[in-house]
Amino acid sequence: MIDVNKVLQECPILSGLPEQGIAEAVAIAKVRHFEEKALIYDKGDRHSALSVIAEGAVRINSVSATGQEATLMIFEAGTWFGDNVFSPGMARVYGATAHSNVTLIELPGDKFRQLLSKYPENYAVALDLLSRRLWSAISVIEDDALRGMEARIGRRLLLLAEYQRGQSLGDLPFSVRVTREHIANMMGMTRQGVHKVLKQFEQAGLLKLEYGRVTVLNPEVMDHYVRKLE
Known about the structure:
Blueprint: H1 4-10, H2 19-28, E1 30-34, E2 39-41, E3 49-55, E4 57-63, E5 69-76, E6 80-81, E7 95-98, E8 102-108, H3 109-118, H4 122-146, H5 149-165, E9 174-176, H6 180-187, H7 191-203, E10 207-210, E11 213-216, H8 219-229
Antiparallel strand pairs: 1-8, 2-7, 3-6, 3-8, 4-5, 4-7, 9-11, 10-11
Helix pairs in contact: 1-2, 2-3, 4-5, 5-7, 5-8, 6-7
């Protein structure tokens, strides 16, 4: 049984709401379940809602007319997506697919915006997090233009980990539910090339490879290593 109140209290984008605001968010929340690989919504969908991941993982993607999927990001439990909730009427610029069996807590866009109007102190939190996501998108573009394969993969793993943790990374191990295929698809590389770089990182003691998961053993050490590649 999902504790909706606890999940929403711990969600970063709602951290500026007072206790009463969280209670009102719980009152408008809808719990939705999706099986692995199920479509949550399509790119271009105008449905507006803030989705908080209670259990499982969601793959943010874009699918071409021929059905080819490009993975943009993978979010796990505790994170949120649905940025168009702040721009009513705007089509979603990406799609979302269940990366595993997933449970979402959905706050309808119109009611969520009413909640923010009632508790405007949460806007500062939302703007900070949206700014961080914009910075992340710009940094990915910069990586693609200026950095080699090893640095790009290292920085992307750190970015995925930071998105999951919702704060700056420290020195504690952190796992990301991602395969070599997902990384290759996400970065426009070959699986073989990604595998070679990941094995180099593993041999250097920077990460541990497991089935369907990569664990960064010390994000601070990984960050220092990657910076030396630039």
